[in-house]
Specification:
It is a single chain. This protein is an all-alpha fold. The protein has a single domain, classed as Ferritin. The protein has six helices and no strands.
């Protein structure tokens, strides 16, 4: 790799992988979460994530390249940690808290990835066909993070915090 354009395509391919993997992860957490608000939030974001996958495909098309996915070691590590904790936790409320934390961590990671892609797209002089889909995905990730953050202090999860802390 010896150009910003090649780095951009590499990072775009990683984000394509991330979004594809998260469709399944969000579906799993939506099914396994016992908190209705959390489950519904994961279901809604799973549906948004499917649209985000399509937007990344649109970006590849605008670049006149086939859509390709490249592994993302960061996402793989985050998912491995979530699954490890899932296997060890027997308390439903504590599992919900793990899901909430996993969701917030992943959203922060994705926001950073889209900020990086947008910056590179600007430096490369790419037009709206590349930049707008990335900005839309970023905006949705930011909104999802805000929603998860609000849940963290919502009354139903506040009582969970109280139950789990001495």
């Amino acid at each position: 790799m010896d150009s910003l354009e090649e780095l951009f395509v590499h990072r775009l391919a990683q984000q394509y992988y991330v979004e594809q993997e998260l469709v399944d992860a969000l579906d799993e957490m939506a099914i396994d979460a016992t908190n209705e608000r959390l489950s519904r939030g994961f279901t809604d974001h799973r549906d948004e994530t499917r649209t985000q996958v399509e937007r990344i495909e649109d970006v590849f098309a605008a670049l006149d390249r086939p859509a390709e996915a490249r592994d993302s070691p960061v996402l793989d590590a985050l998912e491995e940690e979530r699954r490890d904790l899932e296997r060890e936790i027997t308390d439903d409320d504590l599992r919900n808290m793990v899901y909430l934390n996993a969701g917030m961590t992943t959203e922060r990671f994705e926001m950073t990835a889209y900020e990086r892609l947008s910056t590179m797209a600007g430096e490369l002089g790419y037009g709206d066909a590349v930049r707008k889909p990335l900005e839309s995905n970023y905006d949705e990730e930011k909104a999802a993070y805000r929603e998860l953050s609000a849940m963290e202090t919502a009354s139903e999860l506040k009582s969970l915090w109280e139950r789990l802390t001495p």
